[in-house]
Amino acid sequence: MAPASSKRPKIVVTRRLPDQIEARMMELFDTRLNEADQPLSKADLIAAAQEADVLVPTVTDPIDAEVIGQAGTGLKLIASFGTGVDHIDLAAAKARDIMVTNTPGVLTEDTADMTMALILAVPRRLAEGERLMRSGQWQGWAPTSMLGNRIYGKRLGIIGMGRIGQAVARRASGFGLSIHYHNRNRLHPGIEEELEATYWESLDQMLAHTDLISIHCPSTPATYHLLSARRLKLIRSHAYIVNTSRGGAIDESALLQLLQSGAIAGAGLDVYEKEPAVNPKLLALDNVVLLPHMGSATVEGRLDMGEKVLINIRTFADGHTPPDLVLDVHL
Ligand code: 8YV
User: Whole-angstrom Cα distance, residue 5 to residue 120?
Assistant: First the structure.
């Protein structure tokens, strides 16, 4: 009988994961880690796909048709560490009979918290105030200094009312925002009632009637530049946009122009079109709060994500369908 270790699937993990997760991964499987934690080059990703039975990538690894096309015959599962799967060419994986899994659900609350932080931070000029304190230039309180805009009583338009959109709606209600949403499908009436949410079939109409807009749809070809230059112009000049989903949902250069001219009041961005690059002109704007894709970045969340990856691989290795199988390209 072959030693047990020879049966263990070969796992290649592309980035550092929490210590406990890496340790468990090593115990359970024949695992290669990336101790340097540098994002892998295209050549390294291809080499990883050739060597692995299971590849564990993250959002920083474009697993495109070229990588999948050159994968070894052993590669049967791409167990991504993250919820969004836009960095993986799902059609190419399907064509090669490679399963794809993700880690849904466990980063909902953390991402919703960070979204709320931006919803509060941008209209209330939190980052500007913080910069003022650090500059040493604060002259003391004055009735007209650092005035922002009230959150309470405003209309929040949520684009994409899945798990994260709904978690944002629950929080936002507590801050006195009324909830409006646009989604591919209208919510079940019971959920709509519970959230006191108003459905807008037309995204254009919702954009023209809300004061804050927050994006929570998955990144797919259909949602690329969902907030196009045309749609961004529908947004009212006192309104704010928050994006904790994917940079590609907004035409970033069109947004930049509208922010520069004051046609949109401000933006809170956690994600960008060409991460990690950020348009330097965005950095120059005071009415923008910029974060480094940290919506789900909590210790607890990363452990939960790692657990999900382990369960997906283990279930697959036992010959069963992994629980978080990504079924199809969301179109
Ligand atoms: C993750 C995310 O940190 O899961 C997602 O879709 O956007 C992030 O919050 C990242 O994707 C990990 O790969």
Answer: 52
